[in-house]
Amino acid sequence: MISFPAHLPEPELPLIAPHPAIPKNYWELLNQGQWPQRFWLPTDEPTSDGMTGVAIHAFARLSDTSIATTLPDYLIPFAHDGHQYFCFDLSTEMPAIRYVDTEVDQWLVVAPDFDHFITQLTTAPIQVSEQDSYQKWAHMALLANAEELPAVLAVGRESLIMSDYLAWLIYFAGESPSKQQVALDAYAFVRDFMGSHLTIGQAQQVDAAFRHSAVSLQFHTLAEKW
Length: 226
Known about the structure:
This protein has about 230 residues and is of the alpha+beta class. Helix content is about 35%, strand content about 15%. The chain has eight helices and eight strands; from the N terminus they run βαβββββββααααααα. Helix 5 (about 160-170) runs parallel beside helix 7 (about 200-210). It is elongated and about 65 Å long. The chain starts with 14 loop residues before the first strand and ends with a helix.
């Protein structure tokens, strides 16, 4: 599990209220972060995410109230992205874990309890599209390696507002040198082809991030033509 980095635009995340049936290890897991590093759940049936499984992006954080849904009362969602839900099923003793997709009316029991659910999670290739929610995009951006990041940032450039996109470039300017290079290439695209969408203040903030990064020499070479 990982926590969402400070100073980045945070997605609207699911909320979950205290309930005696929610297992203690759920709250213990949240202490490690809200975003799973192993995010792919194999399923016996095809889902909206793929033929072999479904992705989970952000676990619900503690709140006085849970998210409002049209699901039966015996289901408590602990993850929610659009029409997809992962729920504690209070109709079973443990409780079991159920995946629900309200758009296609799919209701799957995916694990007998939360422990088994967690052990089933695995990794999968990082893939995003412009139709994806910001919750999914942000999760994939956090998990992407340097080889996967260019495609993620290309989608972000088209789907995010400029201020949010630049905040992510500043974030990656502080990550590993290989990710810094990817972010610098993405910033160069913005400066070369989308300069009219940048304010002077925004450009100064991003410039400052790269000026003191591991790719500062490359940045100064590019800045000479800007």
